[in-house]
Predict the structure.
Amino acid sequence: MIALLTRLHDALRLRTSPVIFFGSAAIIIAFVLGTILFTDALNSGVSGASDWLLTNLGWFYILGVTVFLAFLIFIAMGRFGRVKLGPDDEPPEHSGAAWFAMLFAAGIGSILMFWGVAEPISHFGDPPRGTELGIEAGTWAAAHDAMNFTYYHFTLHTWAIFTLPALAFAYFIHKRNLPPRVSSIFQPLLGEGIHGPIGKLIDIVAIIGTIFGIAVSVGLGTLQINGGLNQLFGIPENAGWNLIIIGVVCGLALISVSLGLEKGIKVLSNLNIVMAVLLLIFVLVAGGSTLFIIRGTLESFGSYLVNLPELALWNDTQADSGWQNTWTVFYWAWTITWSPFVGIFIARISKGRTIRQFVSGVLAVPAGFSVLWFGIFGYASFDIELRGDGGLVDRVVGDGDIPGALFAFLDHYPAEFLVSVIAIILVVIFFVTSVDSAALVTDSMANGHEDYNPLGQRIFWGVSIGLITATLLVFSGEDGLTALQSTIILVGLPFFIMGWFQMYALLRALKEDAGELPRMRTREWAQVLPPEEFERREEDEEYDTEDYVIEPTFTTEVPVMTDPYEEIEEVEEDQASTGPDRGTLPARTGSARAPLPESGRDEFR
């Protein structure tokens, strides 16, 4: 089979891993054809499995993300926080300002545009803890709780999901110089097995998950664009127009892929960052409620920090309304599926940073901007409902028009038609850059390197994203948003399981490379006896008082710290290539893995 795939690979003039490429392609094609040909059966199976997971394992998703965040803080604050992601003496590749700017662009644009208004106003009109805490919809208490959950969903916890694989990628790519694949993270566990069947299976799962995760993002963007076009131009919201929008977005992404990184992604990323910031400033100053928004944003951020421990482990136990399954669990499952894509991007730009700098920067910068974005859009929405004409809750909560929330919101601002057109363009650009970047990253994950590769490979991944998006939205046999949610909850489960192994693998690699700290040594003291007992034992010949004292006395001096680091003998290249073990990857890194016999290496090609 492998020989057949290799011949097909060579005939198509590809330059990738045949097993990973064709394995991923086969799953994508099987899903598309299976959904179209067996719509009802597949839909029933996916919905049933998703419902079972939500009922029985929703807590696992909630716990997992909170543990990821705690682990990252532990790693950053501990002794490994000083470890560099790259050679020990190498400075960071990018300046602090450039690094922060690129972090801003790392995967947050599409989230901000779709949920900026929809999330706060949904929870304002239908409080998550309304039954549990007696919060009435449309009140100031509902606004506070809505912002608590909005910040919970889109700040530290969301970015913990991205940061964990990003940190692991950065360590194993820059420190151990391994290929840019998810399987590389498991090298301390698998050794050279990362190139074997288990490693390839991990990479196939990662690629499929990334494709589905980006497809869900593009699907949400398609619904939002269609909603905006319907409001502005009366274009119907139906399957036909969804297909057209998907085709346009993916077509533009393929053009950007063809132009390359400098002329494609970089230009579009700079453009959408500028446009997003201008839109944010417009919302802040043009609605006449600037002071209300600023004060409310600060107030809600403080409330979020106070309530964070409770929110991080809240499982809707009392009401058991199913709300958390629809919102939080969906977010976590969706986010973690495209965490390899965002993780590799962040890892690429972070070479030379320490783990402490990396974790604090990747968590704080995007999360901080999300606080501003959701605070400004959220309180501007509350202002419309509490002090203005209202109507947003009826549209978003009453009619269930979440994709149209942004455009219903902009109706209350000056020059609403022009601003809405700009917003649609901004959404399109965000999703074009998402598809473009995902095609490049997915291709590098399949190849195992970032050098030049045939354009057709990157185009294939871009087309795959479009096919999966169209399949989920148009051919799934149920409401588009429901289909996206059901599918992604299933796809996210193996990623959550891998996340626990990623924490262990990273910690083990750090201990292998940095070494274990010696036990703390202290001054030793003699055993003290009360004076009367000491005297009795001195008089009694059966006792020896040589090891006892009356006055507390130390028997050794205070240990003197010396330089714990010793010069490490470099492994000569000829030595590494000779001998039974020294040249193997486990031998060089300290990972316990037996070398493969020569006869078994062919199966990994």
Notes: Residues 39-77 form the longest helix (39 residues).
